[in-house]
C-alpha cells in the first residue's frame, strides 16, 4: 500500500467522480481507476459503489476513509513540524545549561536573540554538569552552555563569557577587611568545595594546580548556592564567580591578585552530529560578537 494510493482514494471519495478526480490529481482516468482497483485488491474488499464514472463510498470505504483521513493529516502535521524545525526563522533551539547560569546569562541570551529572530523557540534544559552532559551526548540537546573544562575532543567550543573569580568570605571572617588576596594566603583555611557534578569545580581545581595553595578540609557542596550559604554561616571560605544567584547578604567578595583566576563559560556542541538550522544560526550569532564581558 502506497501513500499515493491513499491520496488518490481520498480525492475520489471527496469528489465522487473518477474523471473529476483524475483531473484534480493530474493523472489519467485509467491510471486512477487502476490505482483504486489495486488498493481494493490489497485491502480485500470494495470501497466504492460505482455508477459509471460516478462513485460513492460504500460501508467499507466510509470506515476506511475515517482512518486514512486521520493518517494523512498526521503525516501532513509531521511534515509541517519538520519544516518548522528545519527553518532557521521558525525553528527550535534545544539548549542545555548549568543551573547557576539560569539566573542571568541564559535569560539575557534568549531575550537578545529573540529580538532579532522572534519566531524561533528555545527548548531549555538546566541541571548539574552530569545531567546536561548526558543530555547533550544522548542527542536530546543540540547545544550546551557550560565551563570550558568540560569539553571533549569531539566538541566544538565558543567563548561567551569570562567571569572573574573572587575569594568569598563571611562578613564575620578575619579576612573580611582585605581589599585583595592571593591564594597562597589562604593555605589551611577551611575551604567549601564543590562535588564533581558542578561545572565550576574543574576550573577551580585546574587553577589550584599552579599555585601554592593547600586546601583545608571542610565541606563539599552539590551546587554553588549551597557553597554561598555555608560561607555565609562562616563555616569556611571559597572561590566563586560574582553572579546574581550568589549575591547573598553578609558575603564579602575579595579580588584575587594571582593571574588567570576567571571562569570561562561558553557554547559547546558535538561536531560529529547534525544540529538544526536554527541551532546553527544561534552558533553563528554567538561567533559574531555576542561574547559577554562582566
TrEMBL record:
Any Gene Ontology CC annotation: cytosol
Superkingdom of source: Bacteria
Gene3D superfamilies in the cross-refs: 3.40.190.290, Winged helix-like DNA-binding domain superfamily/Winged helix DNA-binding domain
Start and end residues of each HTH lysR-type domain: 1-58
Gene name of the encoded protein: yybE
Family membership: Belongs to the LysR transcriptional regulatory family.
Entries under InterPro entries matching the protein: HTH-type_LysR_regulators (IPR050950), LysR_HTH_N (IPR000847), LysR_subst-bd (IPR005119), WH-like_DNA-bd_sf (IPR036388), WH_DNA-bd_sf (IPR036390)
One Pfam family here: HTH_1
MF (Gene Ontology): DNA binding; DNA-binding transcription factor activity
Coiled-coil annotated residue ranges, if any: none
Name this protein carries in UniProt: HTH-type transcriptional regulator YybE
Keyword vocabulary terms for this entry: DNA-binding, Transcription, Transcription regulation
